[in-house]
């Protein structure tokens, strides 16, 4: 009987360890992707697309985690560990958008509606919020990024 408990303990410990290693690897991968989006030579459209792809991956990962608490922790850790890079990206995107003419902004925002990542992201958000029992707006940096995709902020940006 003790042997069975010992085997069960080892199996659970090994699974937990593998899951932690996998999450660290995913966070490292996301951080690397976000770092690659920094820089003035990268267009705002490409930065937004990269951010959207990263968030889609993050949200899909959160949905595969069995525990809602661990899913919340996964998103929270991502937000905290990448806060500086995400703020820089938002600042760079806003700066590039401010330099655009009205026609360029209108063209850009119309092209956004054609992107396949936008409906996917909008579909994942309520699923993730339900999973983690919290609004994604509670993560301040995610809230800032989601504003980039909201119609009212798009219109405001056009009018600036």
Concise description?
The chain has helices spanning 2-37, 44-64, 68-81, 83-98, 102-112, 117-132, 140-147, 151-159. With 160 residues, it is mostly helical.
Q: What would you note in describing this structure?
A:
The chain has helices at residues 2-37, 44-64, 68-81, 83-98, 102-112, 117-132, 140-147, 151-159. The protein is mainly α and 160 residues long. The chain has one domain (2-159). The longest helix has 36 residues, at 2-37. The chain is globular, with a radius of gyration of 19 Å. The mean pLDDT is 78.
Helix-strand blueprint:
Layout: H1 2-37, H2 44-64, H3 68-81, H4 83-98, H5 102-112, H6 117-132, H7 140-147, H8 151-159
Helix pairs in contact: 1-2, 1-3, 2-3, 2-4, 2-6, 5-8
List keywords for this structure.
single chain; mainly alpha; 160 residues; 8 helices
Alpha-carbon distance between the two ends: 72 Å
Beta-strand percent range: under 5%
Succession of helices and strands: HHHHHHHH
**Total E-strand runs:** 0
């Amino acid at each position: 009987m003790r042997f069975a408990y010992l085997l069960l303990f080892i199996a659970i410990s090994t699974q937990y360890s593998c899951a932690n290693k996998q999450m660290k690897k995913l966070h490292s991968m996301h951080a690397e992707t976000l770092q690659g989006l920094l820089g003035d030579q990268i267009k705002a459209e490409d930065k937004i697309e990269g951010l959207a792809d990263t968030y889609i991956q993050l949200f899909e990962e959160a949905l595969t985690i069995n525990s809602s608490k661990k899913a919340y922790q996964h998103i929270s850790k991502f937000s905290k560990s990448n806060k500086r890079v995400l703020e820089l990206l938002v600042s760079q995107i806003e700066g590039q958008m401010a330099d655009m003419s009205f026609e360029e902004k209108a063209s850009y925002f119309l092209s956004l509606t054609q992107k396949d990542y936008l409906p996917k992201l909008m579909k994942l958000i309520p699923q993730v919020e339900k999973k983690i029992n919290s609004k994604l707006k509670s993560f301040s940096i995610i809230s800032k990024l989601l504003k980039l995709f909201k119609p009212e902020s798009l219109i405001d940006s056009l009018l600036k």
